[in-house]
Each structure stands twice: as structure tokens, then as C-alpha cells.
């Protein structure tokens, strides 16, 4: 007779539960609050079960960062598909998601990855590879120097927002102005 309390094995689902819990913890706690035990608890697995899927804290964090970059990439792609103007489409999507204030969606996950990127060379390299790939895909629409400056400005504004030194009343004005400048100049 089957034991009704024994969980059926579904390693892919368990692995995804662990990744989801890790991404959530990165978004909520950052790297400093990231622990294997709290991820295991949130995923409903033992620490040993977590280590079965991810042999180290670094491996789990790397997988979580890759997953977040993949989710960000999907969100950016969806944003671009809805954009009726080709010129600057990637830059507009990048600014939108970089400067998003939501604390539960892709914006908070993106912030977690950005913080990881600032402190870890492996995460930084993954981000650089993603950005280089995106820029290569959008060379026809986003290879303009003005658009590059706007992406860098978005990164700088993100840092001031993250550290809390931005003046909130001006932040939205800056975001709106940056987005406005991503469109081609009218003749």
C-alpha cells in the first residue's frame, strides 16, 4: 500500500521550488542575508535536499542569477514586442526595468542581480555577457551614442535610488526625460 504522506519524486519541480525561493530571498535579503537553510525552509526541503540539487551556496546563487537574467530577458523581450518604435526599443525597455520601483516583480529581482553583480566577478561576467548579447541583437536600433549614454544614466540613477540618496520628486522627472530622449528626433 502506498504511503499517502510520502512525497512523489519530482526533481525538476523541487529544483524550481528551490530556485524560486533563492530568487525571492535574494530580492528580499540581498547577498548578505542569503543562506542555504532559509532557502531550504522556504522551498519546503531539507538542507541536504537542497544540496542534492545545488552542491554549494555559490552554485545556488549562480543558478538564481542566471534564472533572474532569463526572466529579465523575457520581460524585456515582451516590452520590446509592444513598442511601436524600433529606434531605441531596447534602451527604453532597459530603462523601464532598471528603474522600476516594484518590490515584488522583476524590478526587485533585477536589483538583487545588480547588487550581486557589484560584489562578485562571476555574476558581473554573466551580466556583461547578457548585455553584450542584447546589444548585438539590437545593433540596428540601439547602437547610437546618445542611447548608450541614457543606459549609463539609468544605471547611475538606479544606484542613487538603491542607496536612497535620490530626491524622489525628481526621480520620475528624470526617468520620463530619459525615456523621451530614446525616441528619434523629429525633423
TrEMBL record:
It comes from the Bacteria. Keywords: DNA-binding. The keyword Signal does not apply. This is TetR/AcrR family transcriptional regulator. Residues 35-54 bind DNA. The keyword RNA-binding does not apply. Residues 12-72 form the HTH tetR-type domain. Gene3D superfamilies: Tetracycline Repressor, domain 2 (1.10.357.10). SUPFAM superfamilies: Homeodomain-like (SSF46689), Tetracyclin repressor-like, C-terminal domain (SSF48498). One of its GO terms (molecular function) is transcription cis-regulatory region binding.
Amino acid at each position: 500500500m502506498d504511503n499517502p504522506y510520502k512525497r512523489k519524486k519530482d526533481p525538476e519541480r523541487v529544483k524550481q521550488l528551490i530556485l524560486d525561493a533563492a530568487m525571492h530571498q535574494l530580492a528580499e535579503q540581498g547577498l548578505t542575508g542569503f543562506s542555504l537553510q532559509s532557502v531550504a525552509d522556504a522551498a519546503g526541503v531539507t538542507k541536504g535536499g537542497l544540496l542534492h540539487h545545488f552542491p554549494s551556496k555559490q552554485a545556488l546563487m549562480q543558478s538564481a542569477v542566471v534564472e533572474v537574467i532569463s526572466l529579465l530577458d523575457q520581460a524585456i523581450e515582451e516590452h520590446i514586442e509592444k513598442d511601436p518604435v524600433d529606434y531605441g526599443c531596447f534602451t527604453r525597455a532597459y530603462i523601464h526595468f532598471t528603474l522600476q520601483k516594484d518590490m515584488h516583480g522583476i524590478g526587485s529581482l533585477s536589483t538583487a542581480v545588480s547588487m550581486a553583480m557589484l560584489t562578485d566577478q562571476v555574476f558581473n561576467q554573466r551580466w556583461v555577457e547578457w548585455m553584450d548579447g542584447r546589444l548585438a541583437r539590437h545593433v540596428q536600433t540601439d547602437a547610437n551614442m546618445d542611447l548608450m549614454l541614457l543606459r549609463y544614466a539609468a544605471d547611475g540613477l538606479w544606484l542613487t535610488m538603491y542607496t536612497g540618496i535620490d530626491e524622489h520628486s525628481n526621480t520620475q522627472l528624470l526617468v520620463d526625460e530619459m525615456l523621451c530622449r530614446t525616441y528619434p528626433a523629429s525633423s
